[in-house]
Amino acid sequence: MSGFEQVSQELNALLSAGLALSVVIVAYQFRLLTLGGATIAFVLGWLIFGLGGWQFSLPIVVFFGLSSLLSRVGRQKKAHLSPPAQKPDPRSASQVMANGFIPSLVLLCWSLVGKPALVYAYLAAIAAANADTWATEIGMLAKGNPRSILTLRPVTTGESGGVSHLGTAAALLGALTIAATGFALWQRLPGRPFSLQDLLVVTAAGLMAQAVDSLLGATVQAKYLCQACGRTAESPSHCPGAEVSLRSGLPAINNDWVNLLANAFAAFSAWSWFEMFGRKV
Which residues are 20's β-sheet partners? Predict the structure, then answer.
């Protein structure tokens, strides 16, 4: 490695750290992230800015920015909803990791092997995270209760595993937004163009992952019954001093694990499709 290349890499690392730190500071000041969430976001942001540049950074910035704005829409109505619909506004370290780990891992793999299929896997993982967030934030504003994806019986608004027409439409729009961002950024990739068909595949992967998220939420995600208020909770901590009992699911699987698994499903689905069919279209 020449001296110029070494200096260039060092400058890129410093610039990436500066960009990641700037975004995180703004997010923390606006109470979009907890301190732990800000720390994890800085590390993942530094990795994404450093390895992928602005082309890989913009989709995840779009996801975080628009999703944070949507969390503010209808706040008064959301504030009056019963738990488990109420969720903390600032994203915690586990929430940031749940939505940022898979894209970061895929990007790291892309930086090592450079396969175009990994670009689509990266976008699909972010599309899945965006679809799930939009489905939750907008779906909570729907009239009437959502229905269980398994039994179609009404469930509490905000409860994992519940779906609604409005939430599903929001999920589709959320996945399409990320796919369209990628379409605008990567009009041409090494070896093949980013086509409208690619846009549809990334969107479909994100939307299917949101359905997987709901299925996992309805089956394996832990749900607790608060002995004080009798409501369903997604955390073992509910009413102060009250005991909770496991109602369904596995204690080790919370909403963050469900999100991470759904994002991994989206990334794997998109990668598989483009490996098998992408070079033939």
Answer: none
Residue range 78-134, pLDDT digits in tens: 666 645 544 556 889 999 999 999 999 999 999 999 888 999 999 999 999 999 999
The answer to whether residue 79 is domain-embedded is: yes
**Is pLDDT of 240 > 90?**
no
Cα 57 to Cα 91: distance, rounded to the nearest angstrom? 19
How far is the C-alpha of 233 from the C-alpha of 222, rounded, in Å? 9
Which of 127, 22, 134 is closest to 67 using CA atoms? 134
| Residue 144 is assigned to a structural domain of this protein | yes
Say what percent of the chain tops pLDDT 70: 85
In which element (H, E) is residue 244 found? strand 244-248
| Segments forming the whole domain that contains residue 198 | 55-280
Interval 120-163: pLDDT, tens: 999 999 999 999 999 998 988 888 889 989 988 988 887 888 89
User: In this structure, are residues 199 and 179 in contact, taking their beta carbons and an 8 Å threshold?
Assistant: yes
**Which neighbouring-strand residues pair with 77?**
none
Q: How far apart are CA 116 and CA 168, in angstroms?
A: 29
Count structural domains, the chain.
Answer: 1
Q: Is residue 31 part of a domain?
A: no
Q: Is the pTM of this model over 0.70?
A: yes
Does 210 reside within a domain?
yes
Contact 50, 12 (CB under 8 A): yes
**Confidence band (pLDDT; 50, 70, 90) for 224?**
confident
